[in-house]
Amino acid sequence: MRYCINCCIHLLPNDLHRQCFRCRGPDHNNQKCPVCRGENKIPLYTDSKQMKWLAVLEVRTDHCESWNGLFCLRKGKLCSLMFGLIIMTLVMVSYILTGAKHGLLLIPSPFHYGAFASNPSLMDNESLSDMKDHYQPSKMNISYVKDYPSIKLIIDTITSKIEFITRQRPDLEELRKQEPHMFSVIPNKFLPNSKNPCWYEEYRGNTTTDPYATNSYALYSKRFRIIFDYLRKVFWNHLYHYKDKHYRLRCLPHFYIIGQPKCGTTDLYDRLRLHPDVRFSAIKEPHWWTRKRFGIIRLRDGFHDRYPVEDYLDLFDLAAHQIQGVLQSDEGKEHGRRNNIIIGEASASTMWDNNAWIFFYDNSTEGEPPFLIQDFIHAFQPNAKLIIMLRDPVERLYSDYLYFASANKSAEDFHEKVAESLQLFEGCVLDYSLRACVYNNTLNNAMPVRLQVGLYVVYLLDWLTVFNKDQILVLRLEDHASNMRYTMHMVFQFLDLGPLSEKQEALITKSPASNTRRPEDRSLGPMLPTTKAILRDFYRPFNTKLAQVLFDDAFLWKRT
To answer: Which GO terms describe its molecular function (predicted)?
Structure first.
């Protein structure tokens, strides 16, 4: 096969290519040439056979322009192809996101934890011994389920596995080994002339020393710095001088409002602090016992440096200064006046949040935490008083969802998250004890909604293993909302607070409610009736046990 050097077209055996003007030489006239004028067109031949099914190839005068046109044509096609791919990608992404939310996908969605099958035989029957692998997203093709009968089978499985087994209380020496620094700072005896647990601690700094320079609460949060700036100014004035040494008064809370979240603890806190004999920590919820002492600032941010017990005690310095004022007054010195001011702390995580234990304490053989928050509180304060505010766990969970969910909130989305959480919880109780699942960090982080917080009786029974029943006051938010004066009187009596004037009592009981549901959340309306029925079935055995422990059928929440 021969080729033309000028135009790179095959030279055919019958020599039709001689019509090319470049092959004729410089005397060729473009105007007279029939090929250049388009009168005759040269069909392309390959091995003497005419390719009639292809387009006719015209030999043009300007060869460079033909190649430029071809390049532009290819570039245009490439741009069109890329634009088409982008449009197709956007359409597919929109389809996946919309279809995954409404259960319309024809293939499994990777954005869901798991699903339920209407047939129990289709449920995952593999071994659940590996907790980490078990809580991975399911590959089943059902992501949005409202089938009450199928979910009821899951609840029945959970109910069949419920056992309320008494927890073994750890020895004091075991607690000392776990937290030696804490035991070196907090004494085992407190001042006898103070109702609140307080003691004097030697201060070895001088007038130029900043006692709050390393306080983690001040370092990690701007809103606490104003409080600590004030404490720095008055700190030296509140030191007690004795035999050329300086002492500061340290205090722990006399009582704790330990739970539960979204059950009215903020409203109770706001009313109690109006009592003239009640003081609180510098911030409502230090979360020190449950999180900060382990280095947890925000759960989503992982672990930071652990907050030492001194940082926690600093939060009570404002109240300690007032207690010291009573103890150091002339009347207090001469007549042995007893301090009646008491301090409270209101971290709503104290009752239930023991998720950090698995990272700091040796695992027990049954997957249960060997030490709980109440073990340490009781070790230092065996006479502490505890207040618990509860509400219908079904309504609590919905309120919790509305408060913490950041986007796409709806009754349908809540239903889906409840269904996913129930499946995860069922998977745990099949292989582990109820207590192990309730305190399981992996499970609790995997569940889209905090089902475990509403299992009140599980936590209460564990607190009753270390504290006496008369040290714990359990209230209902429903009673508090309907008869606030009565519930506040119960609290005053429980804390052994002095009588109030009518004006003081009116101020406490008639103040507007605190931390109510936000308007944008109220506009979403109630949960779906199916969701409510599912949650009623789930919480029923736990509420029944709670009512038995407290000897009060109101905790069955049948009328709410």
So the answer is: N-acetylgalactosamine 4-sulfate 6-O-sulfotransferase activity
CA 410 to chain centre: 18
Residue 174 in tokens: 């075991």
Q: How far is residue 19's CA from residue 82's CA, in Å, rounded to a whole number? A: 41
136 has pLDDT over 90: no
Amino acid at position 319, single letter = A
Q: Burial of 335 by CB count in 10 Å (0-12 exposed, 13-18 middle, 19+ buried)?
A: exposed
The strand order across the sheet containing 245-251 reads 198-203, 245-251, 240-242
Q: How far apart (Å, rounded) are the C-alpha atoms in residues 41 and 270?
A: 96
pLDDT at 18 over 70: no
Residues 303 and 216: their CA atoms lie apart, in Å, by 13
* Cα–Cα distance, 30 to 39 (Å, whole number): 12
Alpha-helix runs per DSSP H in 328-410: 330-335, 357-360, 373-380, 393-404
Give 233-259 as a DSSP string: HHTGGGPEEETTEEEEEEE--SEEEEE
Q: What is the pTM of this model?
A: 0.74
Strands 255-259 and 245-251: unpaired
Give all domains of the chain, ordered by start, each with its CATH number. Answer: 252-304+342-550 (3.40.50.300)
Contacts of 87 (CB under 8 A, 6+ apart): none
Residue type, 281: S
Residue 224 tokens, joined: 């606490």
Start-to-end C-alpha separation, the chain: 95
Compute CA distances 337 → 50, 94, 198, 238, 559, whole Å. 121, 73, 15, 19, 49
Burial label for 426, CB within 10 Å (0-12, 13-18, 19+), is: buried
Structure tokens at 287: 């979360």
- CA separation for the pair 106, 168 (Å, rounded): 51
Query: Residues 187, 313: contact at Cβ < 8 Å?
Result: no
Q: How far apart are CA 285 and CA 266, in angstroms?
A: 10
Provide the pLDDT confidence category of residue 337 given band limits of 50, 70 and 90. Answer: confident
| Beta carbons of 269 and 257 less than 8 angstroms apart | yes
User: Which tokens in the block code for residue 371?
Assistant: 């030490």
Count of CB atoms within 10 A of residue 499's CB? Answer: 7
Distance CA 344, CA 270 (A): 11
Rounded to an integer, the average pLDDT of 170-179 is 94
Q: Which two tokens stand for residue 559?
A: 């009328």
pLDDT digits (tens, 9 = 90+) for 85-127: 888 887 776 655 554 444 433 333 332 333 333 333 323 333 3
| pLDDT classification of 336: cutoffs 50, 70, 90 | low
Give Cα 82 to chain centroid, integer Å. 41
Q: Is the pLDDT of residue 244 over 80?
A: yes
pLDDT in tens, 466-495: 999 999 999 999 999 999 999 999 999 999
Parallel, antiparallel, or unpaired: how do β-strands 385-390 and 255-259 relate? Answer: parallel
Q: How far is CA 481 from the centre of its chain?
A: 28
Q: Is 498:356 a contact under the CB 8 Å cutoff? A: no
